[in-house]
Amino acid sequence: MEKPALNESKILITGAGGFIGSHLAELCVEQGYQMKAFIHYNSQNSWGWLEGSKYLNEIEIVSGDVRDYDSLFAAMEGCKTVFHLAALIGIPFSLVSPLAYIETNITGTYNILQAARQRKLNNIIITSTSETYGTAQYIPMDEKHPGVAQSPYAASKIAADQMALSFFRSFELPVKIVRPFNTYGPRQSARAIIPTILSQIINNGKVVKLGNLNPTRDFTFVDDTVNAFLHVAKSSKFVGDVVNIGTNSEVSIGDLAKKIAHIIDVDIEIISDKERIRPGGMEVERLRCDNNKILSQTDWRPQYNLESGLEATIRWFRENSAIFKHNIYNI
């Protein structure tokens, strides 16, 4: 039985101007929740993907930086629930600047936890990633799968998860960790694989440059991911625990590119670009989610399969392809 605990006060979402965060913010409004969107401070006062949201007048915008404890503590005033999504997520760039990932992903999570502790929040949802598992040691991968950091990004997220669990064990802070596998859909960063494929097909037509074509991923459409976030937040069963979000299916990067081309109805030539191949032990070769925990303990079910999710994503990218720089490799 789920406990509807979100109506007590405002919900705070960090990273609310980003890909998943903006979808979650809009879903919260649609479901009648009052919310604050914590947006990374910038000189243009840009609110990211919430700029053009039809719900903008129903969202309280707060600017700040998760690396700054004071701005987070102030933002939590009047809140009982926080969804922490703000993070640096580009895996290749974590090779360039590992320290930036430590400061944002680890220190930022500490600031969330400590501020939530001081503010006495009763629902703290920390966003993890399937990258914390590394290459699958068994399939499907449940929440007990060992954590293996194959990049500085993954290491920073493992550390953040462990920090969150330590606050549960040490201070009884009501932390829940959601661990999405590969989320995709409208508004996703150009660094991700599906926007990389789509932007090249839509702008170039025939030639698609990719890295390693063999790794497999478990893709979840963004609407399903944010619905899962809310199901976890409303449940009392996941306190001090980790829960996977995924579909228990997998597709290789090469087959994914072919599937996208088939839906668009275009013949493509796939070129393996050395610049895009991850070095040595950094490549996570296989990911497939065991989603039994969330299926058995909530009524959440994915509403999109890969084809229907890709169709929705393709429609959005056709309308917004000009915002992506298809001719460069985004790290």
Give an overview in words.
There is one protein chain. By secondary structure, this protein is α/β, with parallel strands linked by helices. The chain has helices spanning 19-30, 69-75, 93-96, 98-119, 152-171, 193-204, 222-234, 253-264, 292-297, 306-320; strands at 10-14, 35-40, 60-64, 79-84, 123-127, 175-180, 182-184, 207-210, 216-217, 219-221, 241-245, 251-252, 269-272. Strands 3-2-1-4-5-6-11 form a seven-stranded parallel beta sheet, sandwiched between helices. Helix 1 links the parallel strand 1 and strand 2 (35-40). The N and C termini lie far apart (43 Å). The mean pLDDT is 93.
List the helices and strands and how they pair.
Blueprint: E1 10-14, H1 19-30, E2 35-40, E3 60-64, H2 69-75, E4 79-84, H3 93-96, H4 98-119, E5 123-127, H5 152-171, E6 175-180, E7 182-184, H6 193-204, E8 207-210, E9 216-217, E10 219-221, H7 222-234, E11 241-245, E12 251-252, H8 253-264, E13 269-272, H9 292-297, H10 306-320
Parallel strand pairs: 1-2, 1-4, 2-3, 4-5, 5-6, 6-11, 7-10, 8-13
Antiparallel strand pairs: 9-12
Would you kindly provide a brief summary of this structure?
This protein has 331 residues and is an alpha/beta fold.
Keywords:
331 residues, alpha/beta, two-stranded parallel sheet, 10 helices, 13 strands, 37% helix, 17% strand, globular
